[in-house]
Amino acid sequence: MWGEPYERAGREMADYRVETTRNGYRDWIARNERGAEVRMAAADDESAQPSFTPVELLLAAMGGCSGMVLDRTARAVDHDDLAITIESVSTPEDEGRIGRIRVTYELDIPADANNGKAAEVFARGVRLTHEQFCTVSRTVEHGARVEAILPDGSVGFEG
Question: Pfam families in the record, alphabetically (predicted)?
């Protein structure tokens, strides 16, 4: 619970922490230390709406991370009207995974903006977002080790 150290018996400190608690059958609330909450539930459960599915939150995290990085990497281009749409667009070989994610950036960049260089600057910002700076996108692209810690402190899964 909050207030407990991020570190557990010989494990390194966590960079981020979100607690997820059960609200009901297939209905969960995720909270961070700053008091933000988001509800997660099955899309087909009418009684648990409005909510996000866990996959929708993954996609939302990519969009939010990409947008925040672009605020830095493409700051020379006015992008107040930028919309980022993230979609899972294919079925993977195994059912428990997303096969491909499409990130679409929608922005009207006038041809004469910044002496015609605005589109180039924005494209560079998008490239840097995914190549270097968006932690979420880079983690999805390259994978991360996952370990599941059981209530007794033992490792129930590593992969």
Answer: OsmC
pTM, to two decimals = 0.85
Longest dimension (CA), the chain: 63
Taken in order 143, 100, 65, 112, is the CA torsion positive or negative? positive
Q: Nearest-5° angle of CA 49, CA 36, CA 55? A: 50
* CA-to-CA dists, residue 63 to 10, 44, 56, 142, angstroms: 34, 24, 10, 17
Tell me the pLDDT band of 2, cut-offs 50, 70 and 90. very low
Domains with residue ranges and CATH for the chain: 1-49 (no CATH), 53-158 (3.30.300.20)
